[in-house]
Recover the amino acids of this structure.
């Protein structure tokens, strides 16, 4: 294995199409206009020494090593800052040029250590060697060689003695990351790089690593490089944190990972990274890792370390026994959005083929399932429409319910770059997120709505666009379904949807809505980006459809700079959904009821698939408490911490007889498990992740599996032990099966991925190299369909008892339930979850900064530390959910999206009060007698009131229930529910269902 | 009864305020006009009295002279030992070619009426009748070049900005006058601010800029105050505003104050500073005329350049280019300073000799010792010996002589000067004032000072002189801007013109 070397052309590529011909050192050269002479020369293989330039940053012209001579021009300009011109004749070497370059190098060497800590990493010594100069004639003068190191950052060192003040770090922080944490202090000889007058750790630095990446010397160096030593090989792989899906070079020294270096040719990140992907990989080798299978008879027993064979047999026996006693549908599985497409595909296959039911769901249920439903209904497929690069072509960006600087930092940097270049930002969020106002970025509008009122705001925006004549009729007429548009236009123009009417509930001033609507509708290219602040609501699916309506009405679909872009929370949310993890659909979003689709799999797998949907995660919990569902295979998701209304989840888990957890660590869920199957970290996997832009990236094993097995191998072993033999030679073989059974993946193979680097699906005969922008000529479903989006307030309302609304989110340094990041040095930034409270709410309750507060909802109580913050409006409190002891999900309720059951994490009515209790005292709620029946009633009524149907609500309600409910649940609805609990529409729907049955 | 007592900072620094107060105390009926300085600084405080036969001058007047002036009936032009006769008759002034400084010292700086009476606004009014192209043709034809030091033809710069399409363009006036021995920008802003406003306004209407910014160094508090008052008056009088002199042109001016950095006088560092950033030099291209302030096309001119524009528009290019030599047309506002008997402003047509300036106008050294060296063009200018006094003071001749005109500052040293120490000072100045961006300037200046120090101390003199010359080449050829690029000029000129100071022998 060798080191992967990415050439550095010194300055960014020119975007110009026109070509310019010139001569460099007598060689004729043709390059894009506005290319720097340096880049033109380097691309042609003509070497020019450089230190201050690197092709991720704009030319700066400070080191003066790259000087050249140009015929008929005076002096020796720097080649990095001088653009090519037609007919220009450039000389890159002459006696004079060499003399000046050596003279400059002599100056550098006079204030630089003779030997650098990083050895060959130091470009200064490399250039000096090439110039044939090793010492300086300047002796005994003033230097900076006695400056102290800044070791405050856990991951990198700043050693000012090696700093050559090239500004690459400062520029990277400004231009690439957009944080502006670094600067140059003082001037002249005293000029030094500074983290703005304080230590790195106390500064604004977000540890993205861009400065370390940019530094040409050992001044900014990964500590791991200094302790482990120089890497000897590198492998390209994909980060396993958020849905941006950054490509990295894993640089190895033997079996040891020295560092993760962002890949310049990475389609998603183009050489950038964040603190998690760049540095927080230590969990993969953390001593908490379990590497041997564990089993136990009951959850009160101690774990027993056993062989793989014993563990698999134990698990299979348990599951088979349950199926024998309670039927085939009494078990199921949950796939993980953190695992590879291949691992996910194999788990859902195991459930469908070996468990012989459709009880498979994915943790994407609790984050982006409404995206799947909403975009499926309107556009015809469940995916973002753009690539990330598209944002650079946007004129107006609408950001809804997402906090990219914390949750999708690398994309946030790209967005910030676009904004600094002139794009205008509209933020729709209850909180003052960083992008509302941060260095270089000021949002044009911040529509600070109350949690739970997204649909009110999107309807109001659309109302203004419709009533003020701002609809792009030519787009709608050419591309969208006419009847649905007419119905939508009639609906959205109703006075009830006006900003003035919606102001009462959303609390967004009508004038602000009107201004924002005009801004967005008049943009040449308007794009919408959204996150879990959209989906995790009881109207999550309605909101996604509202977003899609807005994009269609303003003609913002099908080209660069526009589109609807869900920012996926986890690395493989997109992929786990693509892979057929939902109980109602097979890979590529094809409904299980479709006989042609089932036939493909029946033939390929030699089985007979059930035609009806299986259980969703919350259905599984309800059925478990009801005693009908007793065995669960959980792949890499900590449902006992991350799912809402945890008391309910815990009760369900306790009720089961065989809970199998496949994970890296003994997580919260494993406390309820009978079998623990050790999993592999992303550094051991061989497969693919699909990011938020539908980009399929390769995940390559950089080290041997710590468990001795691949994760999919373990799944296959269990399936085999269940009586359905499954085996794959490698990840590529699984992808071959995915491609063979999934039209949107037909053209995908590991070989092609290795060749192209990455592929955005659909990838098939029509798009052999993938599809960066979707719906270009027509929508996947043919015509775009407008959907009626009635605003139905959530039942989770602020009351006299619970007068505040709790909403939740993430911080930059931690990730979801923290299983990974809590096992890294990232804890230095965020050691506990904090409750943000507006000053007025705190004052009213005698709560002071840093004091303990009791946080109570109708389902539970926990204790958190208070932070008085102006980032939340009065009436709203906010916390993160990274630490299990915080118990944020003890508070969250059973309410969920009407269409998909995505939990309503973002709205919980709460009360807070001062307390002296230490945290850890979680008070759980009482579980009802028949939670399944309660859920069925709630869900049915919710569908009926939310379904976008107009007059035909009962038909649509019945249809929806058939599409997404298990037959057992429909039976209970028809037979067990008290009719008085059901709304009139549901009662009418029951008649339709009865006929059908 | 009208008496003129300059309000110029130079006059105030030696008691002009006290003189004015004393006059007012003795005779409250006297109308005291606080004019700018005539520029004859050795005569300050120069008190003038308006008489039927013109203005009669007395100077230099100290506060305790005022009583005797009254006794001598100076209000009627009575004789006194400080009497200089009619101001117009003072040869030092009368022999100059006052164009840019035509009104300075004559008018009340903040009287727009005074300004109009003395030919103000004629240029702007004419410009308003011309097309942008015609204005630029007039300017180009006049031969006016940048007076900040670079000497770039003003017309070409304006044309580039005019031809670069943009939604917003700017006019930036560089008033960060940091060269040692220079004070012309300050005296003009304190003495005739409307000229600068008029010049900037002409620039604005020509290239299509609606905002002008005057970047004034913080060390010029009086100039800042006067400029601000003048801008306020201009705005109230419709000279500035949405409708310049009632036309459809809009132009406003705003002042930005420097923060004590020499390099912020470099045009791109000045732009960074105005944008609120560290004053660091930008690489060119792009030229500020194409991508300047906030990335928009920007005219950047020195105070003197812009202040000369109204006259060129008013009297025509021909009247201006009649003066001067070769490609250096018109006049230069020279500033005599240092160890000189008669310091001040000497505005003369290009082509006057250094001899004329230092000896005829300057009267030799103040210390009465022989003049040994003259630094022309500020801290980055060359040191000339008296053997070179015949040099014609114009852009090309000075370059040919190994120097440069710069901003027209002339600093005189007598025979006590040690040019090796001056050379070291040049490097030290650069080390302190360098923005720290490019390597030759950032590290080279410190190494230069250290190396010259070794030469002064007699350490390996020949090797170190070679090293110093190598360094000078690296700095002049390798630096990003003129700061590092020109620092070798005083060093090398000192070494060449005063070799005896670089032998390492103790003096």
């Amino acid at each position: 294995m060798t080191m992967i070397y990415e050439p550095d052309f010194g300055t960014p590529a020119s975007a110009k199409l026109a070509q310019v011909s010139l001569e460099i050192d007598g060689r004729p050269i043709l390059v894009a206009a506005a290319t720097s002479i340096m880049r033109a020369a380097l691309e042609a293989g003509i070497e020019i020494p450089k230190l201050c330039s690197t092709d991720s940053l704009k030319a700066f012209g400070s080191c003066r090593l790259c000087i050249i001579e140009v015929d008929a021009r005076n002096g020796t300009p720097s080649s990095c800052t001088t653009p090519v011109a037609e007919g220009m004749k450039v000389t890159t070497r002459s006696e004079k040029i060499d003399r000046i370059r050596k003279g400059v190098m002599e100056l550098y060497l006079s204030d630089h250590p003779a030997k650098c800590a990083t050895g060959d990493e130091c470009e200064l010594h490399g250039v000096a060697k090439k110039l044939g100069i090793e010492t300086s004639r300047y002796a005994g003068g003033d230097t900076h060689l006695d400056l102290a190191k800044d070791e405050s950052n856990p991951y990198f060192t700043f050693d000012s003695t090696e700093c050559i003040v090239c500004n690459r770090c400062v520029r990277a922080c400004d231009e690439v990351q957009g944080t502006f944490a670094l600067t140059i202090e003082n001037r002249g000889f005293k000029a030094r790089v500074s983290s703005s007058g304080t230590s790195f750790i106390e500064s604004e630095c977000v540890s993205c690593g861009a400065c370390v990446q940019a530094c040409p010397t050992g001044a900014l160096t990964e500590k791991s490089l200094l302790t482990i030593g120089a890497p000897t090989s590198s492998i390209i792989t994909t980060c396993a944190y958020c849905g941006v899906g950054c490509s990295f070079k894993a640089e190895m020294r033997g079996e040891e990972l020295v560092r993760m270096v962002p890949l310049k040719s990475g389609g998603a990140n183009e050489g950038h990274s964040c603190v998690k992907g760049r540095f927080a990989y230590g969990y993969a080798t953390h001593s908490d890792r379990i590497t041997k299978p564990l089993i136990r008879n009951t959850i009160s027993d101690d774990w027993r370390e056993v062989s793989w064979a014993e563990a698999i047999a134990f698990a299979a026996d348990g599951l088979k026994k349950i199926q024998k006693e309670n039927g085939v549908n009494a078990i199921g599985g949950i796939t993980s959005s953190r695992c590879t497409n291949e691992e996910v595909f194999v788990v859902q296959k195991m459930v469908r083929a070996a468990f012989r039911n459709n009880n498979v769901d994915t943790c994407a249920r609790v984050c982006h399932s409404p995206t799947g439903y909403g975009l499926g209904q309107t556009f015809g497929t469940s995916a973002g429409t753009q690539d990330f690069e598209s944002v650079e072509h946007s004129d107006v960006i609408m950001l809804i319910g997402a906090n990219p600087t914390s949750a999708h930092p690398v994309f946030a940097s790209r967005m910030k770059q676009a904004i600094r270049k002139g794009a205008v930002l509209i933020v729709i969020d209850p909180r003052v997120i960083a992008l509302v106002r941060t260095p270089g970025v000021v949002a044009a509008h911040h529509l600070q709505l109350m949690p739970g009122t997204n649909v009110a705001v999107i309807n109001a925006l659309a109302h203004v666009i419709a009533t003020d004549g701002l609809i792009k009729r030519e787009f709608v007429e050419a591309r969208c379904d006419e009847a649905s548009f007419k119905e939508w236009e009639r609906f959205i123009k109703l006075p009830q949807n006006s900003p003035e009417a919606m102001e009462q509930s959303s609390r967004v001033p009508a004038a602000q809505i009107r201004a924002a609507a005009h801004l967005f509708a008049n943009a040449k290219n308007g794009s919408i980006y959204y996150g879990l602040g959209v989906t995790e609501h009881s109207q999550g699916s309605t909101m996604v459809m509202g977003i899609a309506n807005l994009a269609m009405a303003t003609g913002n679909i099908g080209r660069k700079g526009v589109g609807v872009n869900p920012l996926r929370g986890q690395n493989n949310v997109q992929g786990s959904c693509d892979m057929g993890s939902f109980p109602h659909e097979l890979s590529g979003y094809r409904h299980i009821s479709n006989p042609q689709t089932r036939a493909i799999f029946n033939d390929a797998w030699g089985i007979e698939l059930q035609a009806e949907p299986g259980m969703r995660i919350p259905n599984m919990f309800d059925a478990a408490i009801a005693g009908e569902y007793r065995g669960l295979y959980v792949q890499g998701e900590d449902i006992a911490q991350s799912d809402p209304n945890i008391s309910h989840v815990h009760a369900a888990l306790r009720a089961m007889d065989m809970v199998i957890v496949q994970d890296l660590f003994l997580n919260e869920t494993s406390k309820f498990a009978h079998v623990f199957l050790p999993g592999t970290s992303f550094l051991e996997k061989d497969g693919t992740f699909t990011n938020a832009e539908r980009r399929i990236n390769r995940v390559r094993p950089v080290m041997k599996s710590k468990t001795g097995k691949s994760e999919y191998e373990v799944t296959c072993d269990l399936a085999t032990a269940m009586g359905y033999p499954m085996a794959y030679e490698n990840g590529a073989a699984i992808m071959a099966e995915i491609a063979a059974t999934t039209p949107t993946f037909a053209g995908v193979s590991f070989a092609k991925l290795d060749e192209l680097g990455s592929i955005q699906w659909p990838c098939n005969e029509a798009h052999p190299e993938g599809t960066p922008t979707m719906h270009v000529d027509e929508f996947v479903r043919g015509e775009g369909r407008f959907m009626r989006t009635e605003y139905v307030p959530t039942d989770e309302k602020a009351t006299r008892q619970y007068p505040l609304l709790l909403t939740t989110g993430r911080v930059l340094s931690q990730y979801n339930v923290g299983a990974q990041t809590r096992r890294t040095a990232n804890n230095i930034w965020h050691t506990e979850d904090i409750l943000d409270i507006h000053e007025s709410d705190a004052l009213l309750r005698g709560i002071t900064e840093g004091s303990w507060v009791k946080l109570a909802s109708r389902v539970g109580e926990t204790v958190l530390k208070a932070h008085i913050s102006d980032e939340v409006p009065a009436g709203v409190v906010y916390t993160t959910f990274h630490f299990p002891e915080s118990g944020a999900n003890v508070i969250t309720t059973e309410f969920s999206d009407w269409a998909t059951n995505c939990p309503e994490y973002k709205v919980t009515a709460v009360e807070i009060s001062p307390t002296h209790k230490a945290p850890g005292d979680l008070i759980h709620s009482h579980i009802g007698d028949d939670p399944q029946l309660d859920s069925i009633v709630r869900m049915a009524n919710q569908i009926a009131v939310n379904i976008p149907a107009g007059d035909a609500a009962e038909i649509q309600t019945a249809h929806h229930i058939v599409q997404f409910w298990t037959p057992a649940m429909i039976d209970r609805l028809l037979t067990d529910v008290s009719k008085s609990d059901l709304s009139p529409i549901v009662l009418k729907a029951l008649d339709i269902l009865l006929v059908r049955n | 009864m009208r008496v003129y007592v300059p309000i110029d900072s130079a006059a105030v620094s030696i008691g002009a305020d006290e003189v004015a107060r004393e006059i007012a105390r003795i005779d409250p009926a006297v109308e005291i006009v606080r004019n700018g300085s005539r520029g004859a600084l050795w005569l300050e405080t120069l008190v003038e009295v308006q008489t039927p036969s013109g203005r009669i001058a007395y100077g230099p007047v100290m506060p305790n002279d005022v009583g005797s002036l009254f006794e001598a009936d100076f209000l009627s032009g009575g004789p006194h030992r400080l009497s200089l006769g009619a101001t117009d008759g003072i040869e030092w002034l009368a022999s100059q070619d006052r164009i840019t400084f035509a009104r300075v010292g004559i008018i009340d700086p903040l009287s727009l009426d005074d300004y109009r009476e003395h030919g103000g606004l004629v240029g702007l009014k004419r410009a308003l009748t011309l097309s942008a192209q015609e204005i630029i043709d007039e300017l180009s034809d006049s031969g006016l070049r940048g007076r900040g030091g670079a000497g770039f033809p003003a017309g070409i710069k304006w044309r580039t900005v005019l031809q670069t399409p943009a939604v917003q363009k700017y006019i930036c006036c560089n008033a960060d006058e940091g060269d040692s021995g220079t004070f012309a920008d300050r005296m003009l802003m304190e003495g005739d601010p409307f000229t600068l406003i008029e010049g900037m306004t002409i620039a604005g209407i020509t290239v299509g800029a609606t905002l002008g910014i005057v970047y004034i160094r913080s060390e010029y508090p009086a100039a800042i105050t006067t400029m601000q008052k003048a801008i306020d008056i201009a705005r109230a009088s419709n000279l500035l505003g949405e409708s310049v002199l009632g036309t459809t042109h809009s132009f406003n001016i705003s002042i930005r104050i420097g923060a004590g950095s020499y390099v912020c006088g470099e045009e791109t560092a000045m732009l960074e500073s105005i944008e609120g950033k560290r004053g660091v030099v930008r690489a060119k291209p792009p030229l500020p005329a194409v991508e300047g302030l906030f990335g928009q096309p920007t005219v950047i001119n020195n105070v003197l350049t812009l202040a000369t524009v109204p006259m060129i528009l008013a009297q025509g290019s021909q009247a201006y280019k009649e003066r001067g030599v070769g490609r250096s047309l018109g006049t230069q506002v020279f500033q005599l300073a240092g160890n000189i008997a008669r310091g001040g402003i000497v505005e003369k047509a290009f082509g006057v000799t250094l001899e004329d300036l230092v000896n005829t106008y300057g009267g030799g050294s103040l210390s009465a010792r022989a003049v040994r060296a003259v630094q022309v063009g500020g801290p980055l200018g060359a040191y000339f010996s008296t053997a070179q006094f015949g040099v014609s003071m114009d852009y090309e001749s000075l370059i040919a002589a190994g120097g440069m005109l710069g901003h027209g500052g002339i600093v005189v040293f007598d025979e006590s000067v040690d040019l090796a120490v001056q050379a070291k000072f040049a490097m030290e100045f650069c080390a302190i004032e360098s923005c720290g961006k490019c390597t030759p300037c950032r590290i080279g200046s410190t190494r230069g000072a250290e190396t010259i120090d070794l030469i002064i101390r007699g350490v390996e003199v020949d090797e170190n002189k070679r090293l110093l010359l190598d360094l000078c080449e690296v700095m002049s050829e390798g630096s990003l801007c003129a700061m590092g690029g020109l620092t070798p000029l005083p060093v090398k000129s000192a070494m060449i013109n005063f070799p005896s100071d670089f032998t390492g022998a103790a003096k």
